[in-house]
Amino acid sequence: MTEPPVGRRERKKAATRQAIADAALQLFLARGYDHVSIRDVAEQADVSTATVFKHFTGKEALVFDREESTDVHLVAAVRQRATGQSVVDALRRHVLDTWLPIAAHPQWEEFNHLVTSTPALRAYVERMWARHTDTLGAAIADEFGVDHDNLACVALARFVLEIPVLAQGRKDRAAAVEEIFGILTNGWQAPVPGCPIPDPVPAPSAESGQAG
Questions:
Q1: CB–CB of 33/120 below 8 Å?
Q2: Strand locations in 26-179, DSSP E?
Q3: Which of 23, 27, 75, 106 could tie 139 with a disulfide, CB 3.0–4.6 Å?
Q4: Correct CATH for 5-63 of 1.10.10.60, 1.20.950.20, 3.30.420.10, 3.30.1510.10
Q5: Exposure pattern of 160-193 as b/e (b: 16+ CB <10 Å)?
Q6: C-alpha–C-alpha distance, residues 38 and 118, integer Å
Q7: What are the residue boundaries of the structural domains of the chain, listed by start?
Q8: Tens-digit pLDDT profile for residues 168-188
Q9: What is the CB neighbour count within 10 angstroms for residue 159?
């Protein structure tokens, strides 16, 4: 049985979008972000410039082609967590499951250098992270029945989003993520030479009525 036409159209759109994003990244890494135009990307992907803009809002968005899905997955990590699982633990699992595979990609270091060495992309990342913070903070706040601008929820969202940055460059990224979440869960304590940070203590879930 064949799938409905809508399914085929969506697959075709997704394939075109991915081809454009792949072409853009290839050019950005080879020439540098500032030396590549939208027209260059369109020619590389064998599409029109109008098609590029149909799928992406601008040149920066070509670098972060999964930005929209990031919000969706962050919210899902909070709202669809297992019964009894705390918000913090759900986000810990989400970071481990999503960021570690990305950081293990052979082009990750090259991509990261592209972003950090390009002022326009660094500025875009800050705006993007602010949007993700708002979205995640609101999802966390909803779990506890508080206003979306609740400082505890906004602070948690921002800190969680910064964890991959803090873990970047560590020999054992997974251990670094776990250690940082341990600090978040247990509270900051003055480090003692030779004394490891204790493992995270399970945080209370939203069902308990306490922020986790």
A1: yes
A2: none
A3: 75
A4: 1.10.10.60
A5: bbebbeebeeeeebeebbbbbbbbbbeeeeeeee
A6: 17
A7: 5-63, 67-208
A8: 888 899 999 999 999 999 888
A9: 17
